[in-house]
Amino acid sequence: MTTLQVKKINLQNSYHQTAWQKILASENLRVEHHLSYTAGIYDGEQLIATGSLQRNVIKEIAILPHYQGGEVFNLLLSHLMSELSNRGFYHYFVFTKPMYQQTFEYIGFQKVAATAEACLLEKGNQSIDEFVKCFSKKEKGVKQQIGCIVMHANPFTKGHLYLIETAAKACAQVVVFVVEADEGMFSYQERIALVKAGTAHLSNVEVYGGGAYMVNFATFPSYFIEEEEQVIHYQTVLDATIFKEKIAPAINCTVRYVGEEPFSHTTNLYNQALKEVLLPEVQVQVIPRSASLDGQIISASKVREMIEAGASEKLADFVPATTRTFIQEKYHV
């Protein structure tokens, strides 16, 4: 065997892109876009293995059958993990088929959660077990409900507030997790601050950042799943499984609150997956969306449209005073 070489693959080059797509197809993997880095292992001039990154997620691992079995896999993953460190990521994930779970565990990855279709593993200077230690475990009385809500809050609206206040009236304690994601207009830290400010009057509500373990469909890989509808189902079931097995026990959660989304197919599938996975240990309450004074359904997307249009006159109908003040100071609308 000639000396194996690891190289960055330039996917803008049609020749290299074709070779990359061919090796993915040989392993029945689909092409994913928005990758931040792609590497290949070459035996002479032949591309024999490839792997990619999207931020801190390892994706698109494909190795020709003749080279599977250890050395090439270890070389490829070692290179990708080194590249992650060079990019400032010291905690990273891989989504894979359950049949490959043990292969990644052999090189130090630990399982976060697994379903029949997909497995999420992690490695680095953090872990989900350390993450959940940050939460104060709630005392669960015989008749007490401990509620939980997961939201993007991009930005925090009166709709979000209505959902939280509804849960706060029914539960002894409510824990709100803000999803960690690059939302563009409002940063992760800004969104956490807005939720905290908007719920400061509710003594039984606590707000936490969701870290890397709450639903973030942007990084879920679809390359080893054949149908788009399956992708949505698998990712929602995996997210619900993480919540059931890791998050809910850490806070003694007894009921998960979600907002009704009559016009969002993905959200409806997600809510259905929550019911399938969480019940009976954790109840699922679907709360109808609240409306503004003129009957419009309140949504964060409408608020962002108002900001972009410079239309501040209706902000008060859609967001609490704390959010409105922040928007006016940041965007001068």
List keywords for this structure.
Aminopeptidase; 333 residues; Rossmann fold; five-stranded parallel beta sheet; alpha/beta; 12 strands; 22% strand; seven-stranded mixed beta sheet
Task: Note down, in words, how this protein is organized.
- InterPro entries: Acyl_CoA_acyltransferase, Citrate_lyase_ligase, Citrate_lyase_ligase_C, Cyt_trans-like, Rossmann-like_a/b/a_fold.
- Its EC number is 6.2.1.22.
- With 333 residues, this protein is α/β, with parallel strands linked by helices.
- The protein is built from eleven helices and twelve strands.
- It has two domains: 4-126, Gcn5-related N-acetyltransferase (GNAT) (Aminopeptidase, 3-Layer(aba) Sandwich); 131-331, HUPs (Rossmann fold), CATH 3.40.50.620.
- The strands form two sheets. It has a seven-stranded mixed sheet. A five-stranded parallel sheet has the order 10-9-8-11-12, sandwiched between helices.
- Helix 2 links the parallel strand 4 and strand 5 (91-96).
- Helix 7 (228-251) crosses helix 8 (265-278).
- The longest helix has 24 residues, at 228-251.
- The termini are far apart.
Cα distance spanning the termini = 65 Å
Low-pLDDT parts are none
| Strand arrangement in the largest pleated sheet | 1-2-3-4-5-7-6
Look at the structure and name the CATH superfamily of the largest domain.
Answer: HUPs
Return the CATH architecture of the largest domain.
3-Layer(aba) Sandwich
Which CATH class of the largest domain applies here?
Alpha Beta
The number of E-state strands comes to 12
Structural class per helix/strand content?
A: alpha/beta
Count up the helices.
11
| Share of helical residues | 25-40%
- N to C succession of SSEs: EHEEEHEHEEHEHEHEHEHEHHH
Question: What is the CATH T-level topology of the largest domain?
Answer: Rossmann fold
Total number of distinct structural domains: 2
Mean model confidence by pLDDT: 90
Indicate the overall shape.
Answer: globular
Largest sheet: 7 strands, mixed
Tell me the Rg in angstroms.
22 Å
| Percentage of β-strand residues | 15-25%
